[in-house]
Amino acid sequence: MVIDENFYMRLALNEAWKYQGLTYPNPAVGCVIISKSGEILALEAHKRAGLPHAEVEALKSAYIVLSGDKKILELTESAQIHNYLLENHNDYFKDATIYTTLEPCSHIGKTPSCATLISKLNIKKLIVGSLDSNEIASGGNKVVNDAGVEIKYGVMQKECDELLLPFWLWQKDKFVFFKWAQRLNGTVDGGIISSSKSRTKVHAMRDVCDLLVIGGNSVRVDRPTLDARLVNGRAPDILIVSKSDDFDKTIPLFSVKNRDVVISDNFDILKNYKNIMIEGGGGMFEYSKDVVNYHLTFISPLIGGDDGFTCSSEKFKILNLDQDEQDIIMWMKREL
Amino acid sequence: MVIDENFYMRLALNEAWKYQGLTYPNPAVGCVIISKSGEILALEAHKRAGLPHAEVEALKSAYIVLSGDKKILELTESAQIHNYLLENHNDYFKDATIYTTLEPCSHIGKTPSCATLISKLNIKKLIVGSLDSNEIASGGNKVVNDAGVEIKYGVMQKECDELLLPFWLWQKDKFVFFKWAQRLNGTVDGGIISSSKSRTKVHAMRDVCDLLVIGGNSVRVDRPTLDARLVNGRAPDILIVSKSDDFDKTIPLFSVKNRDVVISDNFDILKNYKNIMIEGGGGMFEYSKDVVNYHLTFISPLIGGDDGFTCSSEKFKILNLDQDEQDIIMWMKREL
């Protein structure tokens, strides 16, 4: 195994993918910081909108390693962390190298600009995967470069762009992903399949989705609530794809507060939303595949159940493969 | 993500698992070398019996990073590399830390002792996962410790022991693994499923297996040769599990030189072998599961085919998850 720029960018990519689907409306981003002497000081990712960006998470972790000062752990607001680092960095980061899957932001939004922070820490080199096409936030590379930091961009750009695609899509239109849970032998029936951790992750994704799409049969048979109770989260709006309106409206799904439920036989309302998760089986997979950007599957290492997808042949490209305590978590793109 | 001893041992583990099934009669071992200043200098694994041990592969890679001297690349014999390192190390490794999933060997077999080599390079610390229970090779920790190197062992020992289990088993008895290839939707029918790279890997595994077990129906229907032609390798002996002897003996399987083919309705002959691969579908899975130690599946990100495993419910623990250019490669252990 060659230990090179791609090795470190791959670490950043893998860390970032763990939070794909959870960062909306922000992009999933990963960051690695290497000390002047070559030591990995931090490997972090952006976890959720409102929490610090990946670079700030990584600088915070690296600061603790370098300074031994854990007071920074008490700070949760990104602005506080920025200020604390600017006041206390003590040139610890001198000649460090930062890898980030995305050009650092240059705008002051929920947090101060990462590019400005990086430009004030005597960093030697910034290695960037994707360029930010977000007009408001972009220009970070220029800010950093103007401060004398060497910049290299385009390292593993294709892979970083794949990580970033959801962000690009929901900025200009919408991002749609299809999520399903299955056993190793492909079955999707017979009640709960995924681990508790996987199901909690799905609830966290629902919490930041603005629309959740489900098939009519699932609603009739499973009578799901489709909220985000496992993370005390917000329940997304629901589109039930069905030709008829024959649902038992007394099930909890229909009485969640602050939620719209639409029943329709088409996807027209998708245009009103930005971050859309479709949950379903083979029928919905087939019906939705032309509007879906990415597919996400949780594979439990089980054999059992009876029924799996019956759909036309498909080929996917694996974008990221991860594992929680039990299940495989795999993001994929359909190959046409 | 915390960058600690477990992080580096996990890197060594993942690298080693890539060669699981290929190192017989040696164990799969991974090694990471960290410089005095904390930089990852090398991440390597033992790839095949006769090639250098993981520690030697890693020291060779680290030497190139530290010295810039690429002449060592011309050396392929482990003994040559040992000698070259001892003559030219120039104290480059002073105060380095070595992570290895298994205690370094202390005996001189196909290669000189890794423990002796490590003990002469001014290494500061050796961090070990599993202790070697091989009576001939063990004692490496003592050799290294006697030379003044600090030793810590038991880091991720459970995971390192899982990596090492095949070696332990074939030393005292035999190791049996069941390999199958499937699509994402669980199907195993309809011709070639795995990528060219996955199939080449399976041939490399056949090359070092001493027995390959296959079901009678597979032989009747697929008429396979079951050799290791993709790697110009040795064809293993074959056990065809079948109650009847009604095979077309003109198919190539029966005429491969230097190969025994046994037809039997039981597994009695397994006792004569050490490293045994079973290839099959659901029927063979069910029939063999009580003699199988590990399961290995290649999952192609495809939907298609018609038939998958029809067997009783099973639960696995994932031991390692990897990906080649297309397929998922997953080692698992049945949970009883």
Automatic annotation (TrEMBL), chains A, B:
Domain of life: Bacteria
Key word Transcription present: no
A UniProt-annotated Pfam family: RibD_C
EC number: 1.1.1.193, 3.5.4.26
Involved pathway(s): Cofactor biosynthesis; riboflavin biosynthesis; 5-amino-6-(D-ribitylamino)uracil from GTP: step 3/4; Cofactor biosynthesis; riboflavin biosynthesis; 5-amino-6-(D-ribitylamino)uracil from GTP: step 2/4
SUPFAM superfamilies: Cytidine deaminase-like, Dihydrofolate reductase-like
Keyword presence, Cell cycle: no
Any one Gene Ontology BP term: riboflavin biosynthetic process
Keywords: Hydrolase, Multifunctional enzyme
Annotated protein name in UniProt: Riboflavin biosynthesis protein RibD
Residue ranges constituting the CMP/dCMP-type deaminase domain according to the UniProt record: 3-141
GO terms for MF: 5-amino-6-(5-phosphoribosylamino)uracil reductase activity; diaminohydroxyphosphoribosylaminopyrimidine deaminase activity
Organism: Sulfurimonas denitrificans (strain ATCC 33889 / DSM 1251)
Family: In the C-terminal section; belongs to the HTP reductase family.
Signal sequence residues: none
Protein task: Converts 2,5-diamino-6-(ribosylamino)-4(3h)-pyrimidinone 5'-phosphate into 5-amino-6-(ribosylamino)-2,4(1h,3h)-pyrimidinedione 5'-phosphate.
Gene3D superfamilies registered for this protein in UniProt: Cytidine Deaminase, domain 2, Dihydrofolate Reductase, subunit A
